[in-house]
Amino acid sequence: MYFKQDMLDMGQVAEVMRPSLKPPLKWAGGKRWLAPRIEDIFLSTGCGRLVEPFAGGMSVTLHIRPKDALLNDINPHLYNFYIWLRRGLSFSLEYGNDEENYYKAREAFNNNILDGNIDSKEMAMLFYYLNRTGFNGLCRFNSRGLFNVPFGKYKNINYKEDFREYSEALSKFEITNLDFEEVGYRDGDFIYYDPPYDTPFTSYSKEDFKWDDQVRLVEHIKRSELPALVSNQATPRIIELYQDNGFHIELIDAPRRISCTGDRSSVKEILAMKGVHGKR
Ligand SMILES: C[S@@+](CC[C@H](N)C(=O)[O-])C[C@H]1O[C@@H](n2cnc3c(N)ncnc32)[C@H](O)[C@@H]1O
């Protein structure tokens, strides 16, 4: 157990575990780079439980390792992978890093979806394999809910087969597979929302996250009394949305991303807060 010293100095006891763990999957929009900042904000609230309604690759919770957490994501395959991770996952991979293997694994994964068999250990293994081997670690589905990411063409991939180190870290955490509005909060929660970015690419799951959902999220947060932090790409309409709804806003530099046009200019990330240190 680790007590963050500056929080103790402020008279608050916020307990987090160490060491931080590396996320087991690659995940678009992963916030590992932002996790230390989120940790400071979480600890400053003195809240006992960290809630992530958009947990994705889980990089934030695995960095902070709070004593108590609720992790939610709408993606059922991600959810299944985490449920097996919590049970203590290990396997020996049947597939290697070549194109033929990849498409065989993708077909097996999609056949299981069509058969309604999505909660097996085999599906957790296939999900991990497709995530490491597919193009850019993307997780994209067609309108029938079938995984359609092409082969990634990586030279070398270090596959992991033993994930048992995650089991203890996740053992006390609640994991759910719901739309963010259905997540059950309670007093003493701090909520970190990391919705899909307000960009044209939002296909994490069968249902896209559209502008209406960005607005639905803000309305949802406004109805709650709990301290909340939201991150998103700082597009003009997102900045306006959070400003107009009375959130405290910070803009920070996100790590440089290389676009398909080779443009390396930095992108701004917005942190929008409510009820944190008396912020709005
Ligand atoms: C930007 S990612 C989160 C990344 C995460 N913070 C990390 O560090 O890896 C957004 C996540 O929201 C999930 N999502 C999309 N729509 C959702 C909804 N309506 N309710 C809950 N989760 C949703 C996606 O499946 C995706 O994993």
Low-pLDDT windows of residues = none
CATH topology of the largest domain: Rossmann fold
Q: Determine the fraction of residues in helical runs and give it as a percent range.
A: 25-40%
Q: What's the N-to-C terminus distance? A: 32 Å
CATH class of the largest domain: Alpha Beta
Rounded radius of gyration (Å): 19 Å
* CATH architecture descriptor of the largest domain: 3-Layer(aba) Sandwich
List the total number of helices: 9
Strand content: 5-15%
Overall geometry: globular
Total discrete domains: 2
Could you give the order of the helices and strands?
A: EHEHEHEHHHHEEHEHEE
Bound molecules: S-adenosylmethionine
Class by alpha and beta content: alpha/beta
Q: CATH homologous superfamily of the largest domain, by name? A: Vaccinia Virus protein VP39
- What is the average per-residue confidence, as pLDDT, rounded to a whole number? 90
Largest sheet: 7 strands, mixed
- Give the strand order of the largest sheet, numbering strands 1, 2, ... along the chain: 5-4-3-6-7-9-8
Describe this structure in words.
The chain contains nine helices and nine strands. It is α/β, with parallel strands linked by helices and 280 residues long. It has two domains: 2-74 and 166-274, 3-Layer(aba) Sandwich (Rossmann fold), CATH 3.40.50.150; 91-161, Adenine-specific Methyltransferase, Domain 2 (Adenine-specific Methyltransferase, domain 2). Strands 5-4-3-6-7-9-8 form a seven-stranded mixed β-sheet, sandwiched between helices. Helix 8 (211-222) links the parallel strand 6 (189-193) and strand 7 (228-233). Helix 5 (99-114) crosses helix 6. The mean pLDDT is 90. The structure holds S-adenosylmethionine. Residues 27, 29-31, 53-54, 56-57, 59-60, 73-75, 179-180, 194-196, 204-205, 209 line the site of S-adenosylmethionine (SAM).
